[in-house]
Amino acid sequence: MNKIILFDGECNFCDRSVQFIIKRDRTATFKFASLQSDIGEKLREKYQIPKHLDSIILIDESNWYSKSTAALKICKNLNGLWKVLYPLLIVPKPLRDIFYNVIARNRYKWFGKKESCELPSPDIRKRFL
């Protein structure tokens, strides 16, 4: 089963993060959906993901992960040295999420909001739900 990443489709930083993942996910392990899309909403319902949660979410099998846990589990599957970050999961989640939360709270102010979406190439488009 593919792993699904739900992301904020209006956030420039989130969009760049998705592009970053795509470049380093050579085996196409991940599929993507915007939190704001119909499929994003359906996946939230199916996996009982709280509506107020607007961070990156990784759905893997029957589990879902958010914030720094999702980011580190994603890193584990990327090509390159990103795998070395995975052991940071031993750090308690509240400590890991401090840094994540600072970026998340300021993402629109620092990186802006998207007015429209770029159309990816057909190969990349297949990876979006």
TrEMBL record:
Annotated protein name in UniProt: Thiol-disulfide oxidoreductase DCC family protein
GO MF term list: protein-disulfide reductase activity
Pfam families, sorted: DCC1-like
Source organism, top-level taxon: Bacteria
Naturally occurring in which organism (per UniProt): Aquibacillus koreensis
Organism ancestry: Bacteria, Bacillati, Bacillota, Bacilli, Bacillales
Coiled coil: none
